[in-house]
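Practice set, problem 2.
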Amino acid sequence: MSFISAIDVADVRVKGTKPNHVLAIVCAGIVLANLDLFIVNVALPAIARDFGGATLDDLSWVLNGYAIVYAALLVFLGRLSEGYRRDRSFLLGIAVFTVASAACSAAGNVWMLVAFRLLQAAGAALMTPTSLGLLLATFPRTSVVARCGPGRRSEASPRRWARSWVGCC
């Protein structure tokens, strides 16, 4: 069985859903997850002012906790989500990320902020691996072959396919 035929296309395609809309939504979600990894660096002085009694050690957990949990859960949640529909896993990741982001804004102290950032990282770690599966299932093989030319896309390797997708433009 080839890689593409192993993908259950029916779990993503909904009547009236346009592939470019899925691409835009997936890209926006991934940009938010990755932006959030680094944006706190800019906000750290303001966070330190708001939580006046916070030490630099405590504040470093706001930055590093997200990166550690995101990296630690990325493969695990990706493998776990393979047993479920990609669209629902992605939406669950978005929901967890969004709720945790709102909770971060209401945090009363640094350790509450750290806890909510860890939850935020878990949502981002669920979103990230399901995004490629969504895109692979959303864009039919014929549109990719038409875009990149026959023989440019290897069905055996998603990495080669991604390179051919980027390289064909």
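Problem 2, part (b): a different protein.
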Amino acid sequence: MSVVVETYPDIPALVAAAADRLVEAITSAIAARGTALIVLTGGGTGIGLLEHVRAHDDAVDWSKVHLFWGDERFVPADDDERNEKQAREALIDHIDIPAGNVHAMAASDGEFGDDLDAAAADYATVVADAIESGSDANTFDVHLLGMGGEGHINSLFPHSPPRWRPSGWWWAWRTHPSRRRGGSR
């Protein structure tokens, strides 16, 4: 496998190129298997990418796309820091995607209340069920990764204790290291 490094003159050019590649990956997955499984990210660049995709949403059959999140803040559904809320405002609320194809983790004011462990465990089940339900796909087609200012990716923070859990993909942070105001998965 060869490594290709591409550079762009600025963030808007990077966002546009990444969004175009995302649309291409989605349409290729749909052509190959009839479905696309996409893991979203938050943050300024990730949300900018979704806004760019929205401008070209006619290229995608959204009824065949399933959306997930690689990390999420365990805050109320209407909190501006919630990645799902940001993604809905940037893309999801503007495209014709079935509600059942949007697989978000429960919010802190949702069905599990403030039980972060229960919400994270439920999300692990949601993801596993969605991947296995009638699809030839057993993995994600694209997992978007952003990087926070302090270097975190998918709620994996530098200088934090190891979080590897061979028994499952999901874990719960009691205190979100970048904000210290609530939990994050």
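Answer key, part (b): DSSP finds four helices and five strands in the chain. The mean pLDDT is 83.
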